[in-house]
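Hypothesis: this fold can be encoded by more than one sequence.
Test: take the structure tokens below, design a sequence, compare later.
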């Protein structure tokens, strides 16, 4: 298990560096997520050598898409009053949001197939389950005062 964690961190060092240069999550949350995934997935050394580079590529693409979305300021969050927009402008906002969601889903599918062609489907199932339980765990920890508390 110790070797797997070491391997995971070696594969993830480039991701930590990029996260500090403008990623949407703090390095603390990313470290928690990696630790959480490592524990929940219980990968063999060989599986870890395959999984983590694919996971890093996936995260890099999703981060780039989110950065693009934020830079283009295409979001309802950035519009103070919908009532002040024309119907065409509102429709454009909605379509842009749907397009970003579709692109995000396309990235997710791409990496699902990449994982599926390299790892057993049960390992991939553990990943998807761990992703979902991680979200709940992170919310729970923040409700209790932060990601560093148990």
């Amino acid at each position: 298990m110790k070797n797997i964690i070491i391997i995971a961190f070696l594969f993830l060092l480039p991701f930590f560096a990029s996260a500090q240069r403008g990623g949407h999550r703090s390095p603390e949350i990313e470290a928690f997520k990696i630790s959480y995934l490592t524990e929940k997935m219980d990968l063999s050394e060989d599986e870890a050598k395959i999984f983590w580079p694919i996971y890093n590529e996936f995260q890099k693409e999703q981060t780039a898409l989110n950065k693009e979305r934020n830079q283009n300021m295409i979001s309802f969050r950035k519009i103070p009053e919908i009532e002040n927009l024309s119907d065409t402008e509102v429709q454009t906002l909605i379509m842009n949001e749907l397009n970003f969601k579709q692109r995000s889903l396309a990235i997710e599918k791409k990496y699902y197939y990449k994982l599926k062609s390299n790892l057993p489907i049960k390992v991939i199932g553990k990943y998807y389950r761990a992703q979902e339980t991680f979200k709940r765990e992170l919310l729970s920890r923040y409700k209790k005062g932060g990601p560093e508390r148990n």
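Residues 2-143 form one domain. Residues 5-23 have pLDDT under 50 and may be disordered.
Hypothesis status: open.
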